[in-house]
Amino acid sequence: MMEPVNRGIDQRLFAYILDHNNKAPFYVELGVKTRMLGPDCAEMFITAQPQHANQMGIIHGGVISTLADVSMANAVRTTGRLAVTADYTVSFLCPAPMEGELVGRGSVIKAGGKIVFARADILCGDKIVAISQGAFSVIGNIDYGNEQ
Amino acid sequence: MMEPVNRGIDQRLFAYILDHNNKAPFYVELGVKTRMLGPDCAEMFITAQPQHANQMGIIHGGVISTLADVSMANAVRTTGRLAVTADYTVSFLCPAPMEGELVGRGSVIKAGGKIVFARADILCGDKIVAISQGAFSVIGNIDYGNEQ
Amino acid sequence: MMEPVNRGIDQRLFAYILDHNNKAPFYVELGVKTRMLGPDCAEMFITAQPQHANQMGIIHGGVISTLADVSMANAVRTTGRLAVTADYTVSFLCPAPMEGELVGRGSVIKAGGKIVFARADILCGDKIVAISQGAFSVIGNIDYGNEQ
Amino acid sequence: MMEPVNRGIDQRLFAYILDHNNKAPFYVELGVKTRMLGPDCAEMFITAQPQHANQMGIIHGGVISTLADVSMANAVRTTGRLAVTADYTVSFLCPAPMEGELVGRGSVIKAGGKIVFARADILCGDKIVAISQGAFSVIGNIDYGNEQ
What we know:
The structure is a homotetramer of 148-residue chains. With 148 residues, the first copy, chain A, is of the alpha+beta class. The first copy, chain A, contains three helices and seven strands. Chain A starts with a strand and ends in a 7-residue tail after the last strand. Chains in contact: A-B, A-C, A-D, B-C, B-D, C-D. Chains A and B meet through helix 1, helix 2, helix 3 and strand 4 of A and helix 1, helix 2, helix 3 and strand 4 of B.
C-alpha cells in the first residue's frame, strides 16, 4: 500500500485534504484513495472490485464519473479554495476492465476567483478510458491554518 | 415497497430491463432501483444512505451522476436499442440532502440509428437538484424475444 | 417582421436587453434576433442564410451553438442578473436545413446567486435539431433603472 | 500570410481538407483559416474582427465555440474519417480580447469506429481562453483518392 505523495503543496493543506478524503463516506464506500497531490493537480485511484461492475461485466460509468469528479475536485483543493462541483462532462472512450487500478489524474486549467476549471484523464494502466472537463464554484478558502 | 410500473412498453422488454437492473452489481451496491419504464422514458431512484455522503454531509455528486446516467440509459433501453454511454454532462443546481429518495427522470430526446440523445432531471422531493444531457452509442438491439 | 414580445418582465429590463441585443456586433453579423422575453425564458432566432452553411450544405454547428448560447444568456438576463457564459454543452440531434428560421428557446432552470443554470432547445419548424445545457457566472445585476 | 502546414498526413488528404475548408461558407463568413494539420491534430485560427464582438466588447462565445468545434472536427478529419459533431462542451476560462489571432488546437484523444473523441484548447497568444471536449459520429471515410 503506497502512501499518498505530496509533490509540493503546503504540508498542512496536504494533511487537511487527506484527512477529509479518508473520512468522506462515499470515498470509503467506493474505495476512492488519494495517490498524489501537487500544485494544481491530483491523482486519485480505485481498485476495481466486483461490485463496481455494470450489466456487461465492465466498470460502471458511475464509478468512472465519480473518479473524474474527485480527481478534479482534489486538484481544485490544492489551490486552497473551497469549492463545489458546478458541472462536468465525462466521455467514455473505451470499456474499463474489472481488474487492477483505475487512476484519475485531475488538473486545474484556470483557477478564477469565482470558478475553477479543471480537466481529468481516467486511466487503466497506460490506456485512457475516459476524459472529463468541469467547473467548480468557489465558496471560500480551505481553513487549514494558513495565515492568509 | 412499490413495484416498478410499465407505462406502455413491450412486457418482455420491460421484464428484460428489470431483470438486468436487478442483477447489475453497481446498481445493487448503490441501491439504484427502477420505478417506471415507458416509451422513451424511465424513472430510477436511490434511497439516501449515510454512505452516499460527501465531506459536507450532503449526497456526493458521484451518486447523482450515476443516477443521471442510469436514468438516461434506461430511457434509451425502452427503445429496444442496446447502447453504451458515450458521454454526458451533469450540472449540480443545489445540494441534495441526506434524506428520502433521489429520483432520476430520464427521457430520450432523439433516438437515432447510431446515437441516442437523452436528458435527465434529478429530483429530491419536488426540487430539481441536478440536470443532465448525454449521448448513447448504439451497438445493437436488445434481444428480448422480439421477432423483428 | 414580428416585433419582439414581452411575456411579463419589467418593461425597462425588456427595453434594456433588446437595445443591447440590437447593438451586439456578433448578433448583427449572424442575424440573431430576439423574438420573446419572459420570466426565466427567451426565444431568439436566426433566418438561415447561405453564409451559415458548412461543407455539407446544412447549417454549421457554430451557428447552432451560438443560438443555444444566446438563448440561454437572454433567459438569464430576464432574471436581472449580469452574467457571462461559464460553459455549455450542445448536442446535435439532426441536420438543420438551410431554410426558414432556426429558433432557440432558452430557459433558466436554477438562478443561483453565483451561477445560473439554463437549458435550450434549438428548433427548425417543429423539429428539435439541438439541445443545450449551460452554466452562467453571475458578475452583478443589470442596471436598467430598477430601484433595488 | 502563412501557408497551412502539413505535419505528416497523406498529402492528398491534406489537400482535400484544405480545399473543403476554403470553400465552407461559414468558415469564410467567420474568417476561419487552417494553420496546421497533422496526425490526429489540427490548428485553426481566426483573426479578431470588430464584428466578432459581444455586448461587452470582447469576442463572442459563439466565435470561440465555432473555433473549438472546427479545431476538433479538422483533427478528426486527419484520421481519414468522415464525421459529424455529435456534441461538445466548451468552457470559457477568461475573456478573449478583440485583437490578434484566436487559435484553436484540436486533438483526437480516441478514434473509434463509431465515435471519435477530441479535445481543443483555444488560445489568445500564450493564454488559454477556452477548453473544449467533444464527440464526433463517424459516417464513413473521406474519399480523397486513398486506395483502401
